[in-house]
């Protein structure tokens, strides 16, 4: 399949929606400022730039980035930028947060602050939405960036966040593979036991909205021939569109393997807060940055329509 084809369709659809009011926290380098401005130019977001005004204006002048159309909320440093961006959301002036050139930890510390943050009843988690050229559908991987070693209880929310994201992206049938090293439940491999428990929680209606199976090894999750050889009967195996990983290390390696060895692009989104949070890296391509904004726009749209927090 043509590279970026899935992202291109996603971005084109989101251009038909109203631009998403977005507080951009500390866009004080070329890549973060240019990414926000280009997403605005394509009609994906309506950014409010939050950070040291003089520094933002200097970066724009140095790199020829036109920011004349955008409001700037002056904040003296990165910590203050994160706090001010979160406050804009709390005041209803933004429906999404976007990370600029500050550390992710700085932004998330303000998001999870108990009295002034953006907590919801859900555990906060991260999803990569991967456009893998060799795979016929977008692939959601969670959690590869926020929860280091999630407990079973935390995985319930991580799983539900990912299922809700799939629906927000317009996926007709969300099919989740809970990954481990094997498709057999083995008490010596805790992730297989947790996978089995999660599947039973789906059966009992504690997790809703998706088809879930696990444990599954990666080949059994995404390759029909592998499931045939191993005689795995499942509506998920071989055709998963969501991969729930055992821990952050496994997820990070999987996502980066797809990016650097399979030519995939990755859009990043944080869910479980009161609004979607767009996390981008300085190494991200323009396509990835735009796709992250488009994903956030769809999450915000689903949240408005459902009247509940999806992220």
Automatic annotation (TrEMBL):
Entry keyword Kinase: no
Pfam families per UniProt: PTA_PTB (PF01515)
InterPro entries named among the record's database cross-references: P_Ac_Bu_trans, Phos_Acetyltrans/Butyryltrans, PTA_PTB
Ranges of residues in domain Phosphate acetyl/butaryl transferase: 83-297
Molecular function per GO: acyltransferase activity
Keyword annotations from UniProtKB, A to Z: Acyltransferase, Transferase
UniProt key word Acyltransferase: yes
Family statement drawn from the similarity comment of this UniProt entry: Belongs to the phosphate acetyltransferase and butyryltransferase family.
Protein name: Phosphate acetyltransferase
């Amino acid at each position: 399949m043509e590279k970026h084809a899935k992202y291109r369709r996603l971005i084109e659809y989101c251009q038909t929606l109203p631009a998403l009011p977005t507080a951009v926290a500390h866009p004080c380098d070329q890549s973060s400022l240019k990414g926000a401005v280009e997403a605005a130019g394509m009609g994906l977001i309506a950014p409010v730039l939050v950070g040291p005004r003089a520094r933002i204006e200097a970066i724009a002048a140095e790199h020829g980035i036109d920011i004349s159309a955008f409001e700037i909320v002056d904040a003296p440093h990165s910590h203050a930028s994160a706090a001010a961006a979160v406050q804009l959301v709390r005041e209803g002036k933004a429906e999404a947060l976007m990370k600029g050139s500050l550390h992710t930890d700085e932004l998330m510390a303000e998001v999870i602050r108990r009295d002034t943050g953006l907590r919801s009843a859900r555990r906060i988690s991260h999803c990569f939405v991967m456009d893998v050229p060799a795979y016929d559908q977008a692939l959601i991987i969670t959690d590869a960036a926020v929860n280091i070693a999630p407990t079973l209880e935390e995985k319930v929310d991580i799983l539900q966040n990912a299922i809700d994201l799939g629906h927000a992206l317009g996926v007709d049938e969300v099919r989740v593979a809970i990954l481990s090293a094997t498709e057999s439940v083995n008490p010596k491999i805790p992730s297989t036991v947790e996978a089995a428990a999660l599947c039973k929680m789906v059966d009992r209606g504690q997790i809703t909205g998706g088809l879930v199976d696990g444990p599954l090894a990666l080949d059994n999750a995404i390759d029909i021939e592998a499931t045939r050889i191993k005689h795995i009967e499942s509506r998920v195996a071989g055709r998963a569109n969501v991969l729930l990983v055992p821990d952050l290390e496994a997820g990070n390696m999987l996502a980066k393997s797809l990016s650097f060895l399979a030519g995939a692009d990755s859009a990043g989104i944080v869910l479980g807060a009161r609004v979607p949070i767009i996390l981008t890296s300085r190494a991200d391509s323009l396509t990835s940055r735009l796709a992250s904004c488009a994903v956030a726009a769809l999450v915000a749209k689903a949240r408005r329509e459902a009247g509940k927090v999806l992220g």
